[in-house]
Automatic annotation (TrEMBL):
Protein name: Chromosome partitioning protein ParA
Signal peptide stretch: 1-31
UniProt-listed InterPro entries: DUF6600 (IPR046535)
Biased composition (Low complexity): 565-616
Keyword Transcription carried by entry: no
Start-end of Pro residues biased regions: 617-626
Keyword Zinc-finger appears in the UniProt entry: no
PANTHER family reported in the protein's UniProt record: BLL6125 PROTEIN, LIPL45-RELATED LIPOPROTEIN-RELATED
Species of provenance: Variovorax beijingensis
Disordered, as annotated region: 429-448, 494-515, 565-646
Keywords: Signal
């Protein structure tokens, strides 16, 4: 049984394609190790705005300079408003609005808004990116730059979408889709894009506030010098000035800073996944200059050098170098047997190295903004400009590092020449155990419990939907694997038939023997690949099952916490009722005592009046004892008459 010759000719091509696929998978796996290069920031807040970090149920007061990433949530209380910038896109939230940043990375922005009213402004071309807003009814996919309004009403089960400019596509649960263009709006009920009449009442003050925020953003001076993708550039307008320097080009000088101020000196170090050690500055303008660009000392002042504009700047947790090197014994000694941590801002042209694993592609992208004029960024091992700059190194005791905000009184002053020959490392030389997340104070206002319960219900529904999709994908993979196994079995049967026919033909030539060996080797390789694929599928299924179990455990934990909270509320109500009954009984007892006291007082007054008038209360008299046979009628008549009558 002869096989067509062109099948054998295509085998090298198959091997080449298979190698290309492995190469792409390796590149994808390497890229997956890199953290996202884009974050969001709370650019403005009015009223009470609360924040919940990813993976936690507790709510805290929102901090403007803490980066927002995947899994974080925001809540605006009644009469509150918030503006969040995600690169060049702006998200505006009205009062009583809940938004979760479900997915935020270099290619995807997916927001989940189960309640409230929000406005989204997408300024730049999407260029292959996906921007999506999910509600309890549908998914709104942004197709073009523009301005969009989304209002979700969980009580009515509706979502209102209005397109001021641009274009969106609405997606339902079962594959339904509908497009909306400029100046179009739609109210949807349910999960299948069922249109209903009417639109929710909108606040004119919110529209006016959005228009004012757009005007301020459009007139930003700093947007002339940096890309609008630099998160936090708007605050530079009100807190500093731009100047042109012959060496570094356009630079920005902060206003109203102390004479001994240096970058990365007022704030705190926190632990934020997936970057780890992250700087959160205390200044209202302290986001963009500490996560993009570099710092240089120009005369007596510090200047932020944004570098050459980049189409997509990459966020960095902190662009500093730590003095003392890395390792277990690399801590900086500050005297009295104490160790400390010292750091300084990187200068223009100095490449930054993260304290986590990253690909070379990520390092090249993150260091683009270190370049200025015609000078590229480069790694240095023996010399850093700001390491030897007077007053540039900040030193903090190790026991205060990563333990919340610190002040000037916490800093340690060391001679500047102490740092000249000290090694520089991308991470501090101390163990970072018990680092806080920089959440701040507990929130003054949190979302209502009904919203949280509804969110848990939506989460369970989404998990069930994903489980169904995973099961369907596994079924498809199983069918494909079964088909491959059947084809492989047929191929093996053909090979066996060939092996049975070849001895009957007599002696085989060497070329046929070599071909048979190659086919057997290819068969073994294919079997190994099929076995490897089966093992990978089993691993994926086990991982999916483990993830599902973890999610179920989280749901059970949340249900237990909710039940415990209800029990506590019931116990408190019972205690309050008991206290009320006791208080009522005490009040009745006091009232009875008052009545007794009043009665006794009245009786005392009567006795006093009788004594004043000369009457004394006669003691009770016993009737006279009668002798047997004696009649007492006269005595009774005598007793019934007065002395005058006698």
């Amino acid at each position: 049984m002869n096989r067509p010759a062109f099948l054998d000719l295509h085998r090298p091509l198959h091997r080449w394609l298979f190698g290309l696929v492995l190469l792409c998978l390796g590149a994808a796996a390497s890229a997956q190790q890199d953290p996202p290069g884009r974050v969001a920031r709370l650019n403005l807040q009015q009223g009470t705005v609360s924040f919940a970090p990813a993976g936690e149920d507790s709510w805290y007061d929102a901090q403007p300079n803490r980066p927002i990433t995947s899994g974080d949530r925001l809540w605006t209380d009644r009469n509150a408003r918030a503006e969040v910038h995600i690169g060049s896109a702006a998200l505006r939230m009205d009062g009583q609005t809940h938004v979760e940043f479900s997915e935020l990375d270099d290619d995807t922005v997916r927001l989940t808004a189960n309640q409230g009213n929000l406005q989204l402004r997408v300024r730049d071309d999407l260029a292959g990116q996906r921007v999506e807003v999910d509600t309890g009814n549908l998914a709104v996919v942004i197709d073009a730059p523009g301005e969009y309004r989304v209002a979700a009403d969980p009580a009515a089960g509706t979502t209102w979408i209005a397109v001021a400019s641009g274009r969106v596509t609405l997606h339902g649960e079962n594959g339904e889709s509908q497009s909306l263009g400029a100046r179009q709006q739609l109210t949807v009920s349910g999960r299948n894009l069922v249109a209903v009449g009417g639109a929710p009442a909108q606040s004119g003050s919110f529209d006016a506030w959005v228009a004012e925020r757009n005007r301020i953003e459009d007139q930003s001076i700093s947007a002339r010098y940096v890309s609008r993708e630099v998160v936090g550039y708007q605050q530079l307008d009100a807190y500093g000035d731009w100047q042109s320097d012959p060496t570094y080009g356009d630079v920005w000088f902060p206003r109203n800073v102390d004479a001994d101020w240096a970058p990365y000196r007022d704030g705190q170090w926190v632990n934020i996944a997936p970057w780890g050690l992250t700087w959160v500055d205390a200044a209202p303008w302290g986001f963009a200059p500490f996560h993009y660009g570099r710092w240089a000392r120009l005369g007596p002042r510090w200047a932020w050098v944004p570098g050459r504009p980049a189409a997509r700047p990459v966020y960095s947790p902190a662009l500093v170098g730590f003095v003392g090197g890395s390792g277990a014994n690399a801590a900086l000694q500050i005297g009295d047997g104490r160790s400390g941590v010292g750091w300084f801002p990187l200068a223009p042209g100095e490449a930054w190295r993260p304290g986590y694993r990253a690909s070379q592609r990520y390092l090249d992208q993150v260091n683009r903004m270190a370049a200025y004029r015609n000078r590229q960024a480069e790694l240095r091992s023996g010399f850093y400009a700001n390491q030897q700059m007077a007053g540039a190194v900040t030193v903090l005791p190790a026991d205060r590092f990563g333990r919340g905000p610190f002040g000037r009184r916490d800093l340690v002053r060391l001679p500047d020449d102490r740092f000249a020959r000290v090694p520089v490392a991308p991470a501090p030389g101390i163990p970072m155990h018990g680092f806080g997340g920089g959440f701040g104070r507990p929130a003054a206002a949190a979302p209502p419990t009904q919203l949280m319960a509804r969110e848990q219900q939506e989460l369970r529904y989404e998990q069930a939907r994903r489980t169904r999709q995973m099961q369907q994908a596994q079924q498809v993979q199983a069918m494909q694997q079964q088909q491959q196994q059947q084809m492989e079995w047929q191929r093996q049967q053909g090979l066996r038939q060939q092996q049975q026919e070849w001895p009957q033909r007599g002696a085989q030539d060497p070329w046929q023997q070599q071909r048979q060996q190659q086919q057997q080797q290819q068969l073994q390789v294919q079997q190994q690949q099929a076995l490897r694929q089966q093992q990978e599928m089993q691993q994926r299924a086990a991982q999916a099952q483990a993830l599902q179990q973890q999610q179920m455990q989280q749901q059970q934990r949340a249900a237990q916490q909710q039940a415990l909270a209800q029990q506590q509320m019931l116990r408190q109500q019972q205690e309050m009722q008991q206290r009320a009954v006791q208080a009522q009984q005490q009040a009745q007892a006091q009232q009875q005592a008052q009545q007794n006291a009043m009665r006794q007082a009245q009786e005392a007054q009567v006795r006093a009046l009788q004594q004043q008038r000369g009457f004394a209360p006669a003691p009770p008299q016993q009737p006279p004892q009668l002798q047997p046979g004696q009649r007492g009628g006269d005595d009774r008549r005598r007793l019934m008459t007065s002395p005058d009558q006698r």
